[in-house]
Amino acid sequence: MTEVTSAASDGQRAPRVPAISFEFFPPKTEEMERSLWETIKRLAPLSPSFVSVTYGAGGSTRERTHSTIARIRKETDLLPAAHLTCVGAARGEIDEIVDRYHEVGVRHIVALRGDPATGLGTLYAAHPDGYQTSAELVAGIRKRHPDIEVSVSAYPEKHPESATIDADIDTLQAKVDAGASRAITQVFFDNDLYFRYLDRVRARGIDIPIVPGIMPMHNFKQARAFVTRAGTSVPDWLAAKFEGLDDDAETRKLVAATVAAGQVQKLAKHGVDTFHFYTMNRADLVFAISHLLGIRPHCAQKAA
Ligand code: FAD
User: Fold this and answer.
1) Is the CB of 26 under 6 A from ligand 1?
2) Are 208 and 183 in contact (CB under 8 A)?
3) Ligand 1 neighbourhood includes 88 CB (under 6 angstroms)
4) pLDDT for position 10
């Protein structure tokens, strides 16, 4: 990958430019595919460390993840990371998916347990012949292909199914012991939650990067409903910033960019130097926020 250039050009020591990565979801229609590729082409010159593509356990979603990843591999210089869950598949099937990724040159997997196939909030039941936990999946991937780097999830506000934050950190520890080398957090809006979580994780001797997952909220109402189900709290001060803007998409966008930019700049000020953006397959806000972090486009892209 080509280097990111810094915004500082006044002859003084340049501030360190953070490393960034982007998450996309696999498109369902041709129009969504076109729009995703416009987004990728806009964001690629920012030289992310990697770009990840989410995974759904259903057969067609699985295939869409694979084809998106394969196309990124083929048409760009970006390093793709394929998300993979344990849901609804026997070990053999999961192993085959991992082998297929390895064959096309993918060397990074984001390994997850996944949500219950019966829907969020229902009891999770592992496939009888499947990987029983995310840690087992991590170990399975690393054993099969030691050259595949594995990232996992982390939950600054704890996972909704977890009894306590310490139990949650036990799971993180198991994933690290199994070979995970990076954790990406669930979205959060209160930076103190992240720093408190980081303190607890470090106190347990876990030293892998815990990369904050940042979600610029293009549509506050929708995003709030979505993240709340996943256990993320939405502070009142944040809701207040979007009050009265339900029918004003343009102002909402400006507010969303300001809020997310404020969040990452405060994290950066406190020494955070790596960010993972939940792009929702849109480039505009993420591009602007990256710009404010000092990241400038560089011709990193193979495909026009
Ligand atoms: P784990 O880390 O294994 O567990 C999370 C917590 O739940 C742990 O504290 C653990 O103790 C507790 N727990 C786990 N199993 C049980 C159990 N049986 N009983 C009680 N407690 C339990 N989902 C997708 O479907 N596709 C994706 O591509 C995807 N990408 C994601 C990327 C990131 C960065 C994050 C943060 C989440 C992502 N998710 C994705 C969502 C994720 O699948 C869900 O949050 C899921 O419920 C947990 O998976 P996990 O690997 O995070 O769980």
Assistant:
1) no
2) yes
3) no
4) 42
* pLDDT above 70 as % of the chain: 93
Please name the residues in contact with 206: beta carbons below 8 A apart, sequence gap of 6 or more: 169, 172, 173, 176
Interval 190-217: pLDDT, tens: 999 999 999 999 999 999 999 999 999 9
Amino acid, single-letter form, for residue 195: F
User: How far is 234 from 50, CA to CA, in rounded Å?
Assistant: 28
Task: Give CA–CA dist 297/3, Å, rounded.
Answer: 10
5: pLDDT strictly greater than 70: no
Q: Please name which of 144, 203, 154, 157 lies closest in space to residue 182, comparing C-alpha atoms.
A: 154
The Å distance, Cα 111 to ligand 1 centre, comes to 9
Mean pLDDT confidence for 79-84: 98
For the domain spanning 4-297, the CATH number is 3.20.20.220
Q: How many Å apart are CA 96 and CA 80, to the nearest integer? A: 18
Q: Which atom of ligand 1 is nearest to the CA of 276?
A: 34
35 lines ligand 1 (CB under 6 A): no
Residue 105 CB contacts under 8 Å (≥ 6 apart), including other chains: 73
**pLDDT tens column, 135-146:** 999 999 999 999
